[in-house]
Design a protein that fits this description.
Blueprint lengths: L6 H5 L13 E6 L2 E3 L5 H11 L3 H28 L5 H21 L2
Antiparallel strand pairs: 1-2
Helix pairs in contact: 2-3, 3-4
């Protein structure tokens, strides 16, 4: 059975300056790797094999999610601001989440 790491794994450290992404640990491993900056295509392929899903399908899902995040997150930020939530953390996440999504997308295309 495949399980996804909670969103807090991905977002909670981003607004804090000085974090070093390669050393950040995920709550759950991807194909045996738990360090965020070290997850590569081979880990996603191993994950796919472990859960019995074709690797092309898993990589396609990863790529489509990474590509969609910047636009979707911009919508979330706009909604949050329109509802009165305009904390500095929102601005920090607005900058960092799309950068991280782009980094993921680039690593998937290598």
């Amino acid at each position: 059975m495949a399980r996804l790491a909670p969103l807090y794994d991905l977002a909670s450290v981003l607004p804090y300056p000085g974090h070093y992404a390669p050393r950040l640990k995920l709550a759950m491993k991807v194909g045996g790797e738990s360090r965020l900056g070290y997850v590569q295509v081979r880990h996603w392929k191993r994950f796919a094999a472990e859960v019995g899903v074709p690797s092309g399908e898993v990589l396609g899902i990863c790529e489509s999610v990474a590509a969609a995040i910047p636009g979707l997150f911009a919508e979330v930020v706009a909604t949050a601001r329109s509802e009165g939530l305009d904390h500095p953390v929102v601005g920090m996440l607005e900058q960092e989440v799309p950068k991280r999504a782009q980094a993921c997308l680039e690593s998937l295309r290598r």
